[in-house]
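Re: the multi-chain job from yesterday

Posting the exact lines I submitted so nobody has to dig through the queue logs.
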Amino acid sequence: MSDSTVSTPKWGSTEMLPLPGRFNGAVRELAAKRFAATGARWKDVVFERQFDLFSLADARAVEQEALDSGYRFDFSATVSLESEPDKYKRPDREATSFAAGSSADGRKQVGVGDNVIRKSATVTGPVALISKIEQVMGYLADGIPEGTIAVIDDSGGTLTAPIIEGFAGVICLGGTVRSHLGILAREYDVPTLMNCKIDTLSDGDVVEIEVTAAPPAADAYETGDTGHARIWLIGNEG
Amino acid sequence: MAELNYRSLLETNSYLRNLSDTTYWLCITRTVQESKLFPMNPYMLLSYLNSFYRLPTLLREIDAATPAEELGDRAREVSLKVDTVNAAWGMPAFYLIGREMLMNWGLLRPGDAVEDVVDVLDFSRRFNLAYHRNDGHITNKEFGDRSQFLPERTLQVFEADLHGVKPGDRLHAAATKLVAQLSQYAFLAHCECRIGLHNSGPYNFGENRQLVVRDFFELTEGDYPWLDGIATRLPFANLTIPIVFSDTNFHLMDDWASFEAEPSYDAANIAAVGLYTSDALSDGYIPVGMDNAETLAETMEQYREILNEATADLWKRIATWTREQMIDAGALVYSSVGKDFAHLAGTYRQEDWLSLDDRVQRFKPLMNDEYGRDNLGEMVGLLGFPHQKTNEYGMARYSGLNQNMLTGIPYSVLTDDDFAPTVGDRLSGSSSLPAKNGLWTTTAGRIDLDEYNQRAKGFTPAVLRGANRYRDEEWVKWHHGSPAADELYRLAQRGSRNLEGRGSSLRRADLPANGASDADR
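And the result, structure tokens for all chains:
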């Protein structure tokens, strides 16, 4: 059956990110091959024979091909890494995204972020790096040490849902002031910096967060004018 | 059912392009949402597909029982979960994003499902026109990121009855803490997404004050199976907290029902608060604990304590879920953003809205966290799908680039015939979550689904019965003080502490003991 529709759209190129390019390209190629093999008109295949075009087994094969090539996926939810450890890269806690800056008055700038609520004074305290359900369970059982500043690489609020109001401050390594955690920080009035870039921090490091900084302007995430609140390393309680 | 002609396609494509631009703006002002607890991006992608396959069939049944414009009338009168973020923006956006995914995979062409696209967007447009009838715009974005759908008769009751507060008051503390707890809990109950929260306004309350109406939905047993047995001491599923702020300008209330203010949101600027509930069975807003400031503070403290306990209970339940259960729950929360239309129409079935379609299940093995994150970012941020590019002269709104998030329907469907007009109406699906066993919490009590549907089918709020439906504020302008106008206003004044029976002629200066400016009343 003749088909005048071309499979590559005019003006298009390929996806910019590698895994979407790989997976989507594989699905497109398979679907085109399967359709050609039907010899039928598109309208008789697209829904009526949709499982012939692409099936659960096909999806499994696309994933397996990537895994067989040695590819391992980034994880975001801890449940993904824990339930399918062979599919995911191990977390790399040592990666830094901020080059430590100037030292003055015994303190060194170790990061920047976007302030959610402008306060009258900075907040200082020991940091706790939180990324696992078990840690939250522990805080639920034992309570949160006074003055703790949580370092959370989760711009959502649900991982720390039952304990968020117990922190003296929050350093969030993602999101924006409009993200869920930003919204919750505002509601609970917890001094919080979002979208933070930090040098390596360890549990017990005492930091000062500049929650006296102005929050980003309404168009800051379009213009890129972000990262004006500073984080300083004061010392280590450990 | 869709009427396919040049006019209907022009209207559909115009609506689609506006939604595309607005959604792009909303997305680029956030980073890609991630959560350590929920695999959010994978579940979001699956939810879009679920919407694409199921929504047309479900909306056609609803529309036949209760037309979309009537549903918009309902949503304009009280706080319902079919609101700005869920129904006005999310429902059509999720449906169309699912279409983009399938098109990018080569499993759909832009002319396919054309009848579905036209029907879904026609429903959506009619709902939005009625929902936004009082401000005359179709989206918050079109209105300059503002949301003013409530009529004067309701706002007057709020202004007269809200209790004034000052920082340090028992009620100020109780309200601030309850709002925080509600926000936290609503995010958790909705698998990290924002659709359990809603904000509207601002409304001018005079003396440099603005009212923002804050809503929290589905707080205890209802459609979500994971809320069975959670927060059952809470008597209502939905709570509305109107808040008056002093010296704060809410300059943005976007189509995700999020706000920004100058100076930024600060509880110290809260001047007055109230508490109400409403749902598909309520005849207007019902005041909750509004008799006096002490009773309201006590009620808020009690609800806060219930929800604090519920947050821990629910968090522990969710923490035991498998990855697939988390993905199914999140996908179903997202793809069911329009489910309360079915509650309003009395057509709700659990398997319609809380099942992941078989046609969607086949894509699950693709949905690892990285693909979820990057494919979503590619599709709604970078607009990097090959087919999202337009000709090289193009400059889209907001980005200035030759790319659009959502793909229009080619007008050639009017002359070509090699496309399939609908995905079909045979729905088959499943979920890895435990089945729902609990009751539904409504303003008519805790009832089973049959009773809920039965009650909904026979119910029209009094302010929408007969001629009342068409008595808008242009009519009130010329008929205030008439028996018909007084009767209309008295319906909204039922249960009001200060305005019961006062009728339609009141202006701000006439309001008895303006609660929003007098903490002691």
